[in-house]
Amino acid sequence: MSEKKLKIAIQKSGRLSDDSINLLKNCGIRFGNGVVKLKAEARNFPLEIFFLRDDDIPEYVADGVADIGIVGENVIYEKEKDVEIIEKLGFGRCRLSIAVPKSFVYEDFHHLENTRIATTYPNILGKFIAGNKIKADIHNISGSVEIAPSIGLADAVCDLVSSGSTLFSNGLQEVEIIMQSEAALISRKNLDGDYRKLLDKLLFRVKAVIAAKQNKYILLNAPNDKLEEIIKLLPGMKSPTVLPLAESGWCSVHSVINENDFWEIVENLKLAGAEGILVVSIDQMIK
Ligand code: PRT
Ligand code: ZN
Q: Considering just the CA atoms, what is the radius of gyration of the chain in Å?
């Protein structure tokens, strides 16, 4: 491997920081954190980590200051920089939505005609407005978007929503979802040579960490006469592992199940006669 180092930009402090750091750590990469520093060097992988404001990450990656970065899709699409989405990461989930005061009678987007909409996402909102052929004034403000209607600055807002409690406590109702967003790994366009090789090496680990998070390892005891039925409920990576127990007439079954189907599968396994069900988190899963 060459002496070259891949440079990754992650958020210094904010909603994506902990998950970004944990993702790299779960990839086996060791480094000091960026609480005081702007930059850290990995001890066991050719990687330099830059800790930055999330808004700056697409530009730094596009300009080659960093080779790759972790940032929300909302920021990627808003900044319109020349970067490529390599992998969605499954954290930092939210949606960019339009909300109006609860007293606003809203049926569809035509009701936004001739309104003033406050946002920190003028580009994404502008495309939504143009795409729906409506006329509305975009008020590009720098923060606290949710208070704009109550102070008379706007008729509607376009902001990120996760639980919805910010909108609720400001007397607003969510009426249009413009985009769904999650954190993504981005790279500058056409990353090549040694940098591409390093990215592929990192990506292999990232995919293993994401797959592990989405799956659980399950172990259970099954009576031999119920084995066939139980195995049908467990897809596994190839097929479940079946081992005899010391007690005759029983075996131990091991498999991997998807987190989304987890409770339903466990309920069906119990109904089918499985006992002593253990479910274990997986650190890495290499398919
Ligand atoms: O300092 P820096 O510029 O780096 O950070 P920042 O303050 O701009 O961003 P930060 O840390 O707040 O968010 C970083 C990223 O997290 C965003 O770009 C999104 O990709 C993602 N994310 C996920 C969110 C939310 N959920 C979220 N709920 N970003 C912001 N919010 C805000 C939203 O703007 C609103 O004020 O939370 C409020 C709404 O939350 P609910 O739960 O009340 O609906
Ligand atoms: Zn920001």
A: 24
